Amino acid sequence: MQNRLVITGIPSSVPSLPFANEALRDLVEEHGCWVDRFAFIIDQNQKDEDGREEHGPCQSVVAVAELHIENIRDRAVKKLNGLSITLQSDESSCTYRINNEHSPNRGEKDGREDDSLLYHYNHTTEITDMEPDRNDIIRTVISFTIFASKCSQVQARRLVECCPLDTNLEDVVANGRMVIQTLKLPNSIELTVRRSGKSGGTGTYPWRCGLILAQQICIWLKRKDMSIIRGCKKRRIEGICGQDFTRELFHNKDVLELGAGCAGLPSMALAVACQKYDGCHDISIRRLVASDGIDEIVQALNLNVKENNLNDCICVKHIDWNHLLREDGDSIQSDTIIFADCVYNEEGATALCDAIQSILKPGGNILGVLPVPDCRVGLDSFERSMQANGFHPRVIPRVEEEASSAFACSGVGGKHNRLLWWKDCRE
């Protein structure tokens, strides 16, 4: 739900205008980010223009948008809410103009010299005017004020029902191989991975950073007698070696993956590795939770966990970083937080940092894979915020070991990604 918003205040005649859908979709993208789905729907039981409840069911038109990137909805809502716009449509196109220079309460004629008549009212006004040089085209001009907010579960469900994912989207076509795959990880670990069938933003398909973290976890747990640093003379990192490191992270710990997406590769790899390796019988995870903040992605994640027979090992939960869930009235707490490629904008950077600070138990650990800062907006500010909150990163050299089969995923190449470890040093 964190990537969907609803726009109200739309006159009932707007959906019938040619290309009105595209015009308002462009408006949302200009004030948020690119949109995966957009649709006009009929909302029942709304209030009248004076804010009073109607007697009996009433209907009004609203627009629901699904943003491609999470954690940006609140900013988009703030920028869109209260905008006075003008839709101008003829039989071939529909454009919009934001009326910053006019109060929506004015009823005077716009003084600008153009070939249309624009009026500004607080309520729906529809005007038709003949173009001077073409008497066969009618231009419709409608001015109104829109209001934006997060959408309800009912509105989100209606959007998905009436607006299936556009199969012509470039990323969908490019990642057609991701519908279902078999991932072969180091040391004979195999996972079946399906992409989300209902979309849901960035978590719809697996990402390379998640694959990297899953590979490293499998290698660490198998090589208990080896340092996690290959090629380092002392083969140590501040006193922590292979099995010592994995015990520090996972043994008798509550482990939480944030932003797991539909695949949850690190969580599933961790669960399978602890089951499979004979040498790992002394590493026992107290609780393993894989989470995401988008309803459809949580459903897809749950299906992948069940398909790999890991539902007894992994608890799948819906966790919105901006509105952390409560368990038995207490805050969610975890000894170790893992994540992979979860920052796509400044809002997401702030939300992830705040969530980590709230969830992590004192003295806990954070393990994540991130692209280098210049690959993505928000990465630099995320790392600065983490350090400001007492989390100082250490770069962990990766043990390179290729998986035995190709696995299609999104994201930049491996050399552009870093494996980072934060130890809680907060006072």
Annotate the secondary structure layout.
Layout: E1 4-10, H1 20-31, E2 35-44, E3 59-67, H2 73-80, E4 84-89, E5 94-98, E6 125-131, E7 134-145, E8 147-150, H3 153-162, H4 170-174, E9 180-185, E10 189-194, H5 208-222, H6 242-250, E11 254-257, H7 265-276, E12 287-292, H8 295-307, E13 315-318, E14 326-327, E15 330-331, E16 334-340, H9 346-359, E17 360-371, H10 379-388, E18 391-395, E19 417-424
Parallel strand pairs: 11-12, 11-16, 12-13, 16-17
Antiparallel strand pairs: 1-3, 1-8, 2-3, 4-5, 4-7, 6-7, 9-10, 14-15, 17-19, 18-19
Helix pairs in contact: 5-7, 9-10
Describe this structure in words.
With 427 residues, the chain is α+β, with helices and mostly antiparallel strands. The chain has 2 domains: 4-162, no CATH class; 170-424, Vaccinia Virus protein VP39 (Rossmann fold, 3-Layer(aba) Sandwich). The chain is 25% helix and 29% strand. The protein has 10 helices and 19 strands. It has helices at residues 20-31, 73-80, 153-162, 170-174, 208-222, 242-250, 265-276, 295-307, 346-359, 379-388, and strands at 4-10, 35-44, 59-67, 84-89, 94-98, 125-131, 134-145, 147-150, 180-185, 189-194, 254-257, 287-292, 315-318, 326-327, 330-331, 334-340, 360-371, 391-395, 417-424. Strands 13-12-11-16-17-19-18 form a 7-stranded mixed beta sheet, sandwiched between helices. A 4-stranded antiparallel beta sheet has the order 2-3-1-8. A 4-stranded antiparallel beta sheet has the order 5-4-7-6, with helices on one face. Helix 5 (208-222) runs parallel beside helix 7 (265-276) and helix 9 runs parallel beside helix 10. Mean pLDDT is 77; it is low at 46-58, 101-132, 167-174 and 225-239.
